[in-house]
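Table S7 (text form). Paired inputs.
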Amino acid sequence: MKRSYWLTGLALMALATAAPAQAQQRDQVRLGWLKSLTDSAIYIAIKKGYFTDENIEIVSTQFRSGANMVVPLGTGELDVGAGSPSAGLYNAVARGVKIIIAADKTRSSPGYGGSHLVVRKDLVDSGRYKSLKDLKGMKLASSGPGNSAMATFYYALKSVGLQMSDISTVNLSYPTHVTALSNKAVDGSFILEPFVSAAVAKGVAVRVDSDDRIDPNHQLATILFSGKFAAKREIAVRFLRAYLRGIDFYLGALKDGKLAGKNAEEVIAILIENTAVKDPKVLRSITPSGVDPNGTVNQAS
């Protein structure tokens, strides 16, 4: 009996001394992201230890848009990118740059259009804007050239017989969209939550349409792998396994177009910890974005 206790004590000592060494040996994955609400599944996977379970350590860098991740993904400086597909991405792939669209990150599932087309409130109040046709001649803010927001503009304009040449666009980071609307530097914007709700609450913008109505199941953003990372199949699979667990938990927070499901309060706490939104009331009021439960990409989109 004494020998048994002695051996158990040695085992516990070994575990205690081995733990720091094991932590140092985790595989680092260099991640580029926007640090937006659409990164919810990644925040969850980090917070709940899903990546740790897969022996992965996330080392992150924040970008303004997915388009800015294309070059570092192409060179292998980044392993994984979490952002919008863009013309820059497709052009890079056409030139032979190895970048892989690996999984869904955000889509405009019906009822979960977390991205909205907004117009300045004063333009709505004055009657300058009454319908999508009135976008003609307006300056609209986007997040980057040739990205998914531009595709939404295209479909919105096409639905009323207008073309991209009928508007002008300016590329701004999402947090500055609200400021630009407030300063009347732009007439409208295609903007993500929670900035949509912030602009509306501030009284500077009105929601006029949402991406889930303009282009249902629009593949707004994806998980991108550099060619070098994708070639490391074993760790790439481990990354996706942890990420899909994050998606599953996130979907458990959704109900009736809001963060109101069984996991909502825990997800809200995680979002407060990781994003600029610190008011739980705001997070309960927003329209969260959709994502495929299996991480499957809408290839047609």
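Next pair, protein 2 of 2.
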Amino acid sequence: LKGFPKVPFHRRFRTRFKYNTIENYDLFFNISTKPFLPESWKRTFRYLLKTTDAYIIPGGSNVPARYYGQKQFVEAISTTPIRTLYEYAFLYYLLNNQYNYMKNKPEYVILGLCYGHQLLNVATGGTLYQSIPIEVYKQSYITDIIQAKPDTIHRNYFLASNPPVTRTYNGWFHTLKILRNTPYILKQKKVYILSNHQQAVKKLGKNLAVIATSSDGKIIEIIQHKTYQNVIGIQGHPERQFGLERLNQFPKNTYRFHMHLW
């Protein structure tokens, strides 16, 4: 974290654990204020933008709730706060009015997948549901979820009801409601996508458009930047081998959707 202001002296010696957290740093990235970016980070971001064609943000842990001004759910804690801090800063540097370095390279591609989709929304001023079952569907128990319609399930909660004895990927397939065509998203009916997430976009970020939702319209599944159409967030996992190997089990529209995207 070279380049950030020094931690206040009285906070350095509470405990070693306390000192090694990033609580003194990620507050600089609260989207309700003007974030502070160290010059060393700006140089790195300019170099990345100059020397690469695209930035892909794959799945990961939860986005800390403080990044979008909410109290933190106990079951939605981030396990990769430094990764999130850095990626959030890069997205903010590229897309927000304070810096907006995408204008120097408007053809640059950003693809956020699952966590990356959520982080893209937060970095542009949006918020998240920290728990889809609790906040969206008012479900507090596993039995409530697995008795619901399959298209309202966004990860494989059946594994929690009957845990497997071998390692199993806990993804779940559900359909998309695609609202319009884009250069990368083909509007079709009955398209399945692999999902594995408990959080979702709540308030949409600035200059983002909704391209697809869950079939019931309650979960935003695909977003796209209005100015830079190469900036896309997809809530599902179209990149997972687990899903790609099973495309032939679904209607042909599902295969067409994935091939068109890639």
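The CA atoms of residues 114 and 235 lie 4 Å apart.
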